[in-house]
Amino acid sequence: MDIATASLILAGALLVLLATGLWVAIALFIVGLIAMGMFTSAPAGAIMATTVWGSISTWTLTALPLFIWMGEILFRTRLSEDMFSGLVPWLTRIPGRLLHVNILGCAVFAAVSGSSAATAITIGKMSVPELTRRGYDEKQIIGSLAGSGTLGLLIPPSIILIVYGVAAEQSIIRLFIAGIIPGLLLAALFMGYVAAWSLLNPDRVPPADRRYTLGEKIAASRRLIPVILLIVFVIGSIYAGWATATEAACLGVVGALGLSAATGTLSWATFRDSVMAATRTNCMICFILAGAAFLSTAMGFTGIPRGLAVWIQELGLSPYALLAALTLFFILLGCFLDGISVVVLTVAVILPMVEAAGIDLLWFGIYVVLVVEMSQITPPVGFNLFVIQGLTGRDILYIARAALPFFLLMCLAVVILVAFPDLVTWLPELATRRS
Amino acid sequence: MLRRTLDALYLACAALAAVLLAGIGALILAQIVGRFFGILVPSANEISGFFLATSTFLALAYSFRAGTHIRVTLLLSRLPLGLQRVADAVVVAVAAVLSGYFTWYTYRLTAESWRYGDLSDGLIGVPLWIPQACMCLGLVMLTIAALDELVAILRGKTPSFESSDGAVHE
Question: If you average pLDDT over residues B149-167, what whole number do you get?
Fold first, then answer.
């Protein structure tokens, strides 16, 4: 059987399995089995068991459950209240005022949690009712929350970057460091847009309630300071090379438990709930990774990824044209699949093609995550849209329209990263050179 | 009676999975603290990897029923309820078959590790069959959970992975 026909059959099988509502991980296993059945007489079942065992029982992956757990602990503290009251006094004089709470709050929480849905809920459950009560424009409240919620995927420690790192065999630490500048860039773009919008529509932004003195500002954010310190500590220890990603995650868990105890929210019930929630989420992600690991191995037997790579080389496509095509493909895929599934599928099938086109795999990781972030706010399947639907009761199309400007800003960020790849690669190189 | 036994089994496996997940944190912490005092925690890296694999598989059945695992319900949700249940029954049956197949080969992997006495790398050679048997147990439970759902759907009940999932994905 030639590779083109086989690719079409496998892609078709995957589409049908997913469309019928089969669980993503199980669909990956079955497509892997079909691929092996078509191309090789190697014992598929035995290879499945060995590959899965090898891919999940590795030490590099242990950063994943720990970072998930850290987010779950902080999710159960008073962080969202503290974040709101701590940020407000600083923002009353900036154009756009409290709308920036959404963006900054999400950026800060993204740095302690790795999940964009958790980020949007934690910030949104406080900011949406408060901003609505103060008369801010609903569309801007929803749009800025939906957009900024996605920062959780890019600002380290990011769950999805760990998934990419493990699947693509890239250093998780380097990926984390590489995500810092693009994450800040995105937050700056969002803040700039909100400020510009507010200057153009001054009548739709409620006036500041009052001025705060510096002392009052600091007093209001005193509870925020330990969280900021925790972030600086976790990211800093990775950057400085003191700790591996797993160790930093472990210290993050300890710090989160300490914060939770200090603010009086740590109890046996919240502790147990946080571990159970982390166990469930970790299980879900690792099972998908297991399916992807088997699919990758099976794909190796078929020769499809190599075939695609050769085909792209023969086409003589420039990296820019390839990236443009891939961006479109990912956004399309992201309309139906969640981010983690998109990333593992990508790694299983198209990574050799990307490598053949001469694209740096570290840079590509950040690029993929950014594009996957965009897909989180595109209907019909975008986790951030669902979360905000739960918070506001608005329908998904309304929320997607409100988020559209932020979607376009992300497209701009992708263009910037393609034009200036150093934004991604400079910081990791600096960190490597120093240590 | 059977219902309560099964639910207790799913929960017991999940509780063990949670303990193992917290155990990863404890192990890594011991390693960090130990380094300060010049004490080496032997094989911490290998063992934390085993904890991770074991935790993942033991939590499968429980998280499957809790609706944590991701699937695309875009098309399904537009079908009339009757057809949705038919589709649910089909995918649950497919999941049960795959899980059973996977269980069998994981059992063979475990049996081989047992027969050859395979040990992990590192200072403490952990017999590989121990964590692999836990992986196998997790898959057995997943197979049972899938069959459990199949029976429930055929009896006209709402599958538990649908009834318990809210608008919020963690």
Answer: 77
